[in-house]
Amino acid sequence: MMSKAERTKTKSAREKIREQQAQARLRDRRRRIATYATAGVVAVAAVGLGWWYAASTSQSEVAGGALASVTVQPDGSVVMANQGVTAPVVDIYEDFQCPACKELERVSGQTFKNLAAEGKAKVVYHPITIFSQEPTKSNSVRAGSAARCVADGKQWLAFHDLLYQNQPSETEAGFTADQLKNWGKQAGVTAPDFDQCVTTQKHADAQLSYSKKIIDAQKIDHTPTVKLNGKEIDNPVLFSPQDLRDAITKAAK
User: Fold this and answer.
1) pLDDT tens-digit profile of 39-50?
2) How far apart (Å, rounded) are the C-alpha atoms in residues 189 and 167?
3) What is the CA radius of gyration of the chain?
4) CA separation (Å) from 91 to 88, 161, 163?
5) From the CB of residue 11, how many other CB atoms can be counted at a distance below 10 Å?
6) What is the mean pLDDT of residues 53-82?
7) Which of 116, 153, 227, 236 has the most CB atoms at less than 10 Å from its CB?
8) Going by DSSP bridges, is the β-strand pair 225-228/89-94 parallel, antiparallel, or unpaired?
């Protein structure tokens, strides 16, 4: 049987452990976790006062009005630009399963839309599958294949946004056929063959083939990767809407 002093010592030790755990959780919240999708792995980097902090404190833009024209290309990429706008070109290489891509969409997605609508940029989305491990690879392929089932540009963009809003954990199977079909309806997709296209993963092979082509040609080793006129935009700029706007509008002059 423990003495009173021993019980007090044990209680003190437990309290110390709880305090340490609470402090660790607080540090994690403050530092945040930046998750990159890389070829074959999910690399998790704790970021202190770097770009992730900037992203968490930067003010996202609000919708400025009507969208620019959105056109789905034969290869699966999607162009968002006003008629006649050909430069500067902003290429967004993204994976629907990538948590950092979801954060980019949350923080800076509206900036891309606004700049295209203002005629200040030609934005090109490149949905790829960068993961090679499961379940992230299959999740990504299902989402990418389903996006390829949407031929209407505005419907595609709405579906794109819903995929990020409903992104599953990278540790579990997600983006199920039923979910994708439901989000398609929410995005306004009315094509009669959409459900079958999603269920059969009609474009899965095309998604994988395009991904390999883009990853090899553009030397993509992480998502999101965003390039302005062929040069990658650094994360501190990419995740700061005002800095991003400034960089793109400067390139437009």
Assistant:
1) 444 433 333 334
2) 19
3) 22
4) 10, 17, 19
5) 10
6) 86
7) 116
8) antiparallel
Question: Which two structure tokens, joined as six digits, stand for 52?
Answer: 């992730």
Closest CA to 107 of 64, 70, 63, 57: 57
Quick check: helix, strand or coil at residue 117? Answer: helix
Structure tokens at 222: 């992480």
Cβ proximity of 147 and 127 under 8 Å: yes
State the pLDDT at residue 253: 78
Report the alpha-carbon distance of residue 235 to residue 229 in Å, rounded.
16
Q: Which residue blocks in 203-240 are alpha helix, DSSP H?
A: 204-218, 235-238
The pLDDT assigned to 65 comes to 82
Our measurement of the distance from residue 92's CA atom to the centroid of its chain's CA atoms, rounded to an integer in Å, reads 10
Query: So what's the pLDDT on residue 7?
Result: 52
At 32, the pLDDT band (50, 70, 90 cuts) reads very low
* pLDDT tens-digit map of 92-140: 999 999 999 999 999 999 999 999 999 999 999 999 999 999 999 999 9
Sequence letter at residue 46 = A
Phi, psi torsion values for 126, nearest 5 degrees: -125, 90
- Class of residue 68 by CB neighbours under 10 A (exposed 0-12, middle 13-18, buried 19+): buried
Q: What residues does 226 pair with on adjacent strands? A: 92
Q: From residue 68, give the alpha-carbon distance in Å to each of 12, 212, 240.
A: 63, 29, 22
Q: Output the average pLDDT for the chain.
A: 86
